[in-house]
Fold:
Amino acid sequence: MAEYSCLIVEDSPMMRQLLVFALARVKNLRVTEADDGVDGLRKLASTKYDVIITDINMPIMDGLKLVKRVRSDPVHKDTPIIIITTEGSQEDRQRALQLGANAYITKPIQAPQVIAKVKELLKIE
Amino acid sequence: MLPSLALEAEGTMTEYKGRHTTPSDRPPDDLKKERDAFIQQFFRKGAQFTEELLRENERLRERVGELETENRRLRAHLASDEAIRDLLRKIEELETEKVELVHRSVRAEAVKENYGAQYSEVESELAHFANLYVATTQLHAARSVRGVLRALKEMLAQLLGAAAFAVYFASDDGSELIAITSEGVESAEVARHPMGKGDLIGRAFATGEVIFSAGQGLSRELAAALPPSRDLTKASIDDPAAVIPLQIDGRVIGVIAIFGTLPQKTEFVHIDQELFKLLGAQAAPALVNARLFTDAGRKVPGIQAFLDLED
Structure:
C-alpha cells in the first residue's frame, strides 16, 4: 500500500525510466509519469502528490513555468518540488529556488542523490 | 564499703572496750591515746583508701567509656573501610565493564561503518546497472535510425554529461568518417573527419579501443603521449574528451567523439567506462538493425527466416 506519491515530469523517456528505476527503491512510493509541463498540470488537476520532480527544459511548458503554476495553486502550493536539469549554473539554481522549488539536482543524475533528496523532502527515514 | 568498714572497725573497738571494762584490765591513758590515735589513723587511711578506690573506679569507668567509644569508632571505621573497599571493587568492576563496552562499541561502529560503505557501494552498483539497463533498453527499443540516434543523444547527454559530440560512420570507401548526427557543435565543423590523421578519433577507429582524456583504454605508447589527467571541460573538437569506437560483428564501423562536457561533468568515472563499452558494443547494432528494419518496410520476417539458421 503506497503511502506517498510522486509525480515525475520529464520529456525524455530515458530519464523517466531512470527516475522510475531509482524511486522504485523508496518504500511505499507510488510514481506517476508526465511527458511535459502541460501533462503534469493535467495530472495535478486530479491528484495531489507528495512530491514533484520536474525537468526544466521541456517542450510546450518548461519546468520553471510548471513550478510557478504549482506554487500559485492553493491545493499544491506546499508540495515539495525537485528540479532536474542539465543546467548547472548558480543562476539557474537561484531562479528555480526563487520560483519555489525546494531542491535542485543537475544531470547527469545519480540515483542515490535523487533517492536521498526525495526521502529528505518526504521526511522518510 | 566505707560504712561497713566503719562498722567493722567500730565493732572491733566495742569488743576491745568490752574486754577491758574491768579495772584490772584498764589500759593506761597513754596507751589509750595511742590506741585512739591508731584507730583514727586507721579509719583515716581506710577512708583515704576508699576514696582512692572510688576515684580509681571512676577513672576506670571513664576509661572503659572511652575505650567503648574508641571501640565503636574503630568498628564504624572498619565498617566504613569495608564499604569503601566494596565501592572501590565495584568501581573497578564497572571500569572493566566500561572498557569492554567501549571496545564493543568501537567494534560495532566499525561493523556499522563497514555495512554503511557496503550498502553505499551496492546502491551505487544498482544505480549503475539501472543506467546500463535503461541505456540498452532505450537503444534497442527504437525501431528507426532517428529513434536510435535520439536515444543515443539522450544517453550521451543525460548519462555521460556530454554537451558537444558527434556520431561518425565510416564512408563506404573507408577514406573518411562522416557525422550522422551531432550536438552542441556546428555541424559543418564536425561533418567529415579524414582517416589516417593519426589523431585520437583516427586512433580509436584504428585500434577499436575507447580513448578518453585520462588516458585509459590507450596503448602504453598512446597513454604516455597524453597528459595523465585533464579537466574535461577543456576538451574541444581538436582535442576530444573521449572517443568510442562503434563495433558490429567485430568490425569498427564508426566512432562517437565527445568534444565537450557539461560544466559540472569534470571527469569520467568508472560507470562512464562501462557506458562507453556499452555504447561501443550496442549502438552500431541498434543503428544497423533500425536501418534494416526500416528498409524492410518495418515488416517482421516470416517464421521461416528464423528457422533457417545457415548464418
Remarks:
- The radius of gyration of chain B is 60 Å.
- Residues 1-18, 215-219 of chain B have pLDDT under 50 and may be disordered.
- The interface with chain A takes residues 120, 123-124, 126-127, 130-131, 133-135, 137-138, 151, 154-155, 157-161, 163, 262-265 of chain B (CB under 8 Å).
- The helical segments of chain B are 2-19, 29-141, 145-159, 187-190, 200-207, 220-225, 270-295, 303-307.
